[in-house]
Write a structure and sequence with these properties.
2 domains
Length: 279
């Protein structure tokens, strides 16, 4: 059995010594990009490998491609193979930021054609609440061959612009409500949102303890967000293509697959003054 959305703490504990499972720690803070490495060195789930959000899960910024551009598929595939992700590996990803960073790696693996990837429900906090141990031992890498097979899960800025005034796209912005309105914008030089977008803050998918809401509850909430649109008409975006992935994961849990990601998101969109902005 493979896990493609969530794994709970009990299931992960039962598979810690399973050689076909690989745990990846992607803790990260936008304001302190060295945080994740320090936190990993201080203590991580046994057997976990660390990947860096900026270096491993993103490409270099050019000033017009957003704050977390998508990595080159072949470059990412090589890196995943180096750390031990093979064709049949069950990957579990976690962070301590309510899944915001882990969701990015979940999406990246699905994008590259690897379905056996699941987010640790509740993240590191749930692991520690269940008395899961941490270690500072860095595991030995056991390289595998990872072959990228990119899926149709992505749209670019031109597509978003072309579809703004059409019924073919239902754009969902995962940022907080104030940033969506154009208030308290501290990450990007322009405040506001892409015209026609609706707001679904990524944290609204979670319960107070940081775990995902039940599938039935998520489905009811997402059907309201969709307002009659089909799942395959949904395009997710956020500030830089990271937290939006958690909305896509929530839709998968809710039984609403087929949505896509605008990875450049607001940080790419607002870098071009010729693109329209709504507040």
């Amino acid at each position: 059995m493979s896990y493609t959305t969530l794994v709970d703490v009990a299931t992960l504990k039962a598979h810690l010594d399973d050689p076909s499972w690989l745990v990846i720690d992607v803790r990260h803070q936008l304001a302190d990009t060295g945080y994740g490495e320090r936190a990993y060195a201080a203590g991580h789930i046994p057997g976990a490998i660390f990947l860096h959000c900026d270096r491993d899960l993103s490409a270099p910024m050019t000033g017009c491609n957003g704050r977390h551009p998508l990595p080159d598929p072949e470059t990412l595939a090589r890196r995943l193979g180096e750390i031990g992700v093979g064709a049949t590996t069950q990957v579990v990803v976690y962070d301590d930021a309510q899944g915001m960073i882990a969701g990015r790696l979940w999406w990246l693996l699905r994008w590259l054609g690897h379905d056996a990837v699941a987010l640790l429900d509740g993240g590191l906090q749930a692991w520690q609440a269940a008395e899961g141990i941490l270690t500072d031992v860095v595991p030995t890498l056991l390289p595998e061959t990872f072959v990228a097979s990119p899926q149709e899960m992505l749209v670019k800025a031109d597509y978003v612009l072309e579809c703004l005034e059409t019924p073919h796209m239902h754009l969902v912005d995962a940022r907080s409500a104030d940033r969506f309105r154009g208030e308290n914008e501290t990450m990007d030089p322009v405040g506001g949102h892409i015209p026609g977008a609706v707001n679904r803050f990524f944290k609204d998918n979670l319960r107070p303890d940081g775990r995902f809401k039940p599938a039935a509850e998520l489905r009811a909430e997402w059907l309201a967000v969709l307002a009659g649109a089909l799942a395959d008409q949904v395009v997710h975006q956020c500030g830089s293509g990271v937290s939006a992935c958690l909305n896509m994961l929530a839709m998968e849990i809710a039984g609403l697959p087929g949505s896509r990601l605008y990875a450049g998101s607001w940080s790419e969109w607002c870098a071009d003054p010729g693109r329209p902005v709504e507040r």
